[in-house]
Every structure is written in structure tokens, then in C-alpha cells.
Amino acid sequence: MAVRECPHIVIVGAGFGGLYAARAFNHAALQLIVIDRQNYHLFQPLLYQVATAGLSPSDIAYPIRSVLRKQENTQVVQAQVLAIKPREHRVMMADGIVDYDYLIVATGAGHSYFGHSEWEKLAPGLKSVTDALAIRRRILGAFEQAEREPDDARRRTWLTFVIVGGGPTGLELAGAVAELAFKVMVQDFRRIDSREARVILLQAMPRVLPTYPEALSAEAERALRGLGVEVRTNTAVTAIQPGWVAVGDERIPTATVLWAAGVAPSPLAHSLGVPLDHAGRVLVQPDLSIPGHPEVFVIGDLAACVDQTGHLLPGLAAVAVQQGYYVAHHILNRIQGRSSDPFRYVDKGTLATIGRGKAVADFRVFRMSGFVAWLAWLAVHLFLLIGFRNRFLVLFKWTWAFMSSQHGARIIIDGAETSSSADTGVEERATGTRGLRGVDHGETCSG
Amino acid sequence: MAVRECPHIVIVGAGFGGLYAARAFNHAALQLIVIDRQNYHLFQPLLYQVATAGLSPSDIAYPIRSVLRKQENTQVVQAQVLAIKPREHRVMMADGIVDYDYLIVATGAGHSYFGHSEWEKLAPGLKSVTDALAIRRRILGAFEQAEREPDDARRRTWLTFVIVGGGPTGLELAGAVAELAFKVMVQDFRRIDSREARVILLQAMPRVLPTYPEALSAEAERALRGLGVEVRTNTAVTAIQPGWVAVGDERIPTATVLWAAGVAPSPLAHSLGVPLDHAGRVLVQPDLSIPGHPEVFVIGDLAACVDQTGHLLPGLAAVAVQQGYYVAHHILNRIQGRSSDPFRYVDKGTLATIGRGKAVADFRVFRMSGFVAWLAWLAVHLFLLIGFRNRFLVLFKWTWAFMSSQHGARIIIDGAETSSSADTGVEERATGTRGLRGVDHGETCSG
User: How far apart (Å, rounded) are the C-alpha atoms in residues B46 and B314?
Assistant: First the structure.
């Protein structure tokens, strides 16, 4: 039977889980199709540096075709997958259908606004290159607007940056925005002092990095405060409107709200027709397959997978990578009539960085924070980047930024979304009056 | 009188002309405002490499504030200028007004479609970062579509690239697209051979590079053909429709048409109220001021400026840079009550490159072509880039591409414009049939 002789594997999603699974099939006697809606694998852990103008998109993105070019049993298809039909063994794309013998679903997660989908436009999240460039445009644009704003209150609104969410992404974003405002851009403006900016991190839970040991949370919070970030724990956002966010009865005037709080698994999960957890993740079997379909596997952020102690595995690249390897080898075993042990996550530790030269690390056998943790963070991220070229470019840019306190990607790239008063809530001014918006010449010659 | 003591200078546009003028005012006892609609200076001569995935936007863009950060007499304003009122000495922005004693207008040029503005959507030109990313998206997207296209004729349409215009930009684009198709992407696909692509350069005039010496035109055409580009001179485009371009009675089926033919000076010229030439450029006086307003200067691509022999100066960075320096020093002289000689362009030669390792150069005293000309091209462009960081990054990426035949920025970044069937003219397929769009698994196991 052809199916047994040359099995057809389909992987949907080429993030960490999908891509590492695909690579594990190299040289295997099968036909593999990898489907992604983008033509590149994105190194999401560094996406916040694209948003804060430290890196360019292509530094942390790598064409999927290039990664898999030498893998002759593999086809790459750029397409949007709309649904999966497990009973028919079919993947439904926006413009076509693919059949499979084995399927790996690794489509990850987007943002969750906890039922407030109207917040999405006001408080963009950080999942894609488009998101990162939009956030960069908002942050840099806010400083441009502040420089031209004659009204004190409105200028303060432009110069207030609120980051919602105290997990690793929220901390990294807050730290990077603080560095931009308090270090990188200090000399750039004539009318504002960028150091007057406020960077506020709102965390609904009692501490930042709630999944880390308490001592590291405290250390991370101290480091953030040292960078000039106002950290407010036990503070849940209750409303977001153009021009302000509310926490309880208090309104914080701000033109820039960034969302790093909720994660919503890919809606593709619903089409599998199997039980999901409260967040929308697929409740997988011990071998990461779904109930009733031993040939369909879900890995990465889309899977609700518990470890030996019954804890849900976190949405980390390391988890997705290990699941990708596991599922690929599990399928190869199955094809050869062998069985596999259940999936077991080996926790090698977690890292989070808070601005230049500071990080916290929990390597289980030991913990650390500060500069050495930061060097560990650098090394791990460089190692995980795909390709020598990207590693070299990122290393060079980090070194340059460290030596010069300058960020090289501080350019505002136009996009569909532009930072307008409608989104940011800073009132429109009447136009047509002389000297409007603070572009008077100075009084004295300072040449 | 305040005006005499501390003159107010305004520069509109921070391209080569505007930025080099601004830098020449460093340390002068005056107040300078530089207005640009972007927050960065763009190194346009390398923009085609962003479009063809060799470089990232931030490699060739530099924040204007960073360039001028140490120049204390200078403010930078990011704004759109709508009109100039020379009689009132005022610059009208979308959201404000600035007064001036001296004004330098350096807003450059966009695309001209020779009265066929409906072609713009079908055949994008290359002037901005947004343009470059849109063109990159079209080129890479066409290969993705071809890979999935089961119909032979439609696949050939996706794989046909037409570049309109035989000046330096057209040649550089055609050469770079040919390299992508015939070298860089060769191993990337499974169903198509990217070498089957056709790259066609359409030039209405009798030869490419018509402003260069004839021998160099011939050399450039030979080099293009060597790269696999079909060069068609004396061939004017008569129609562009979704899915094809017409040259006379012949229709060339193509999904990707790129425009490098016409240049339209910035419409701001009209608001000056002075005579323009047939193309819309401002006819400037020998000192680059406009008639009746010795305090208003026009430089760069927006100026129609003739050299000593009565020839119109070409739209080159070198011309704009020299004009910027000249006008700045002319204004400084004027403030100190001194006169200046008329502007005189010193032609140091021109260069154009045609793919990796080939270029033509006309240094007036001698001409050259081939590898040595290409090295000269590299050196000149690296030297003109602003900032060590960008020079280093570009040099590294070029070296990497040269050694590995890989382009690192081969990622498709989403934007407002996406390559759809509506624009490209390749018919939509009915969806829902099995195996549609060529994503069948292969017949045999090739692992």
C-alpha cells in the first residue's frame, strides 16, 4: 500500500515547533509538506528588539525555503490554512487542499484581549513582523509628536508609554522603551527632553515574571526600576480608550499602549473537533496526538501539555523545539512499526532580559541575575538564531548598540496602520495659525 | 533687526541635497529647521537592493535627527509640506506653518507614468522604502505563486518579470532580479526551476543608459544579456493591464511589471509660482534661486539646472550634494554681505552596476567596465553611505552575498499593498478541488 511505503506528512506552521520537526525528517523516506502563511521562520524571542528599533526584521527572520532547501523530501507552501478535517485527513487552505497520513499542527498563538477585542486597535500586541513595525512606528512617532506639541498636558500624553503585562515580553518591551527614551534618544530632540518620558508597566498579578522563582521576580522588578520604569503590580487594566488607560478609578493619560498580556491560541484548534482548555489550547495525549486521531499531533503554544508534575508547560521556544523533535521521531518510529515513550519536557532553564546588561536566569540547579545572566541570555539567543549570517549581524548590532548607545534601526517605516490622533487620542489641533505645533525658530543664535 | 542678526533658514526635504546643505550650516550663527515627511535620510542609489532582498531598509536609511544631533542650531521636524508661499515667506505644512528668511526646497521627484496614472498600481516604481518593500513582496510572491501553479501558461506569467526603463535604476533592478532568479533561488523550489524565469528590460530609446557614452551603453547591454536579461531597445510600452504589458501589437504576459522610466518632480514646485520646464522642474537662476525671490533656492531633482554647455544636469546624488553645499555657502556669504559665483557642477563621473561583479563607469578622463568598475562602484557607494555602522553592515552583506550567492533579506513583509490576482492579472482559481494548486505530495520517496 502506497501510504505505508511513502507516507505523506504535513506540518502546518513553521515556527520553532514546526521547523524543528521538519528538520528532523531530513533524509527520511517520506514526503513532507510544510505550510506557513509567511515565507520565513521568525525568531520571536527577539521580536521586541525590532519593535524598539534595535534590529531589522530580516536579522531575525529566515526564509523557510532556505532552511529546508537541501532537504529533498520536503516542499514548502506559503498559504493560509483555514481548517483541518481530521476524519478526511485533509488540510483546507484558502486556495487549495492537501491530504496527509500524518499531520503536525504548530500554528502557535496570537493575542488575547480577554473579551475586549476593541482594545486591539488601541493597544497593539507583538506577534508578527507587521506588529513589530507598527509598534516601532507608534513609539518613534510619539516622540516626534511630542517634539512639536506646544501644550504641556498633550506633550506628557505623547511621552507616556504604558506596557500591559508583566511576563517576559512585557518586561523586555518596557526595558527597551526605557532605554530608547532615557539613553538612546537623549540628544535627538531640541524642545523635549526624552528623559521626561514615563514608561509604566502594568501587571495584574502580584509580581512580574509570575512563573519564575520569587527571588528572580524581585530582582527583575528592581532592574526595571533601575532603568526608570514605573512597575505597578496588582494593577489590572479596566478600560482602554483613545488617549488613556484606566486602572480602577485612575486614568493614565497616554498615547501609546502596548499589549503583552494575553495569549490566544490559533483558532485552527476549533476545527480539530477535540476538547480544548479554557484558553483555547488543544488538550493533547501523552504522545502529543489528539484524542481519536493518533495521526494528528499538536505542538508548541497551541498545545495544552502537562509535565510529569501536572503543570502546564509554558509557551516557550524550548518547549516547542523539544515537542517538534519528539513528534518527528515518534512518527518515524510509528512508520517503522516501533512505539515511542510519552513526551517528556527537559527544562534547561529560563531567561529574561531587562535592558542592556541586565537579565535574570533560572537554570534550576542555580539561578542568577545581572550582567552574567545577560551574557548567558546573549549566548543562548545567538545560538538559537538560524544561520551564521543572522548570528553575525545580530552580534554586530548588539555590540554596536552597547558601545555607542545608538540604535541603528530607528527609522519609521510606513504601513497600513499609521499613528493617528484617532488611535492615540491626542486631540487634533486647529491648523492654520502661525507657529502652530512648536515649529517656531529659536529666539537666539546657538550656532 | 532680529532677522539680520539671527537668520531663519528652512530646508524642505532631507535627501542628498537637503541634508548636505543642512550639514554645511553647522556652527553657523543662524536658526535652521529641516522638514521631511520621513524621519530618515534614504540612500536611494541602493534602494533597488532592498527591493531585491539584498539589503534591509535600515541598512540604507539613517535617522535625520541622528545625523544632525550635534548641530545645535538645527531643529528637525517630521511633517508633510503642502505648499510654499514665497511672498509671505512661509512654508505651509499639513499641520502647521513655518516662517523663513531663506528657504531651500529639495523635495526631489516621484514617478511619472506619462499621463497614464492608472499604470501606477500595476507597475510600481522605486522611490521610497514602502515602494521597495512592495516590489520585494511582488517579486518573491510571484515565485511562490508559480511554485503552486499547475497551469503552464499561468506559471509562465508568474515567472515573467518586465522592467520598464533603461536608465541606471532599470538596469540595476533587471540585473538584480535576474540574479535572484538565475542564481540565488535556484535550489529553493521543488516544482519550478527558477531559472525558467524571464527578465525583460524594455527601453523606449535606442540604447540603454542613453546619457552615458555609447561604448558603455553597449558594454552594459552585453553584461545584462550575459546575466540572462532580455534587453529590448526602441521598445515603448503602449499599454499595461492586469496580466500583461503591450509593446505595439505584441502582448507580453506577465504578473510583475516594475517601473523605472519616468520621473515627476515634486508637485510642491507649482506652489512657488515660477516657470517650470516641460517635466515640472523649477527653472532656477544661475545661483539656484528662483526668479523674483533671491531668498528661495531649489536644488536636486526638483531643479532644472543647466551646466556651462547648456545641458540639463542629470538627477544624480552628486548633483544634489554639490548644489546643497553651494546654496548653504551662498546663503552664508549673503548673510555676511558677500556675493557668490554662480553654481558650477563638477562632474566626477558616473557609475552604474549590472549584477554581481559587473559595472560600467565613466570618469570622463577614462572609462571602464567589468569587475574593476564594480569595485569602484562598491567603494563609492560605501563611502557615500552615512555612518560607520551602515557602511559595515552593507559591506558585510555584500561580501556574504558574493561568497554564498545567498540574499539574506529574502523575507516578504506584509504591507497595505499585497500581491493579489487583481493586481497581477493571473486568474483566480476555483477552490475546493483536491490537489488544487499543485500541492500534491510527490509520487516517490526521495528522502
Answer: 18
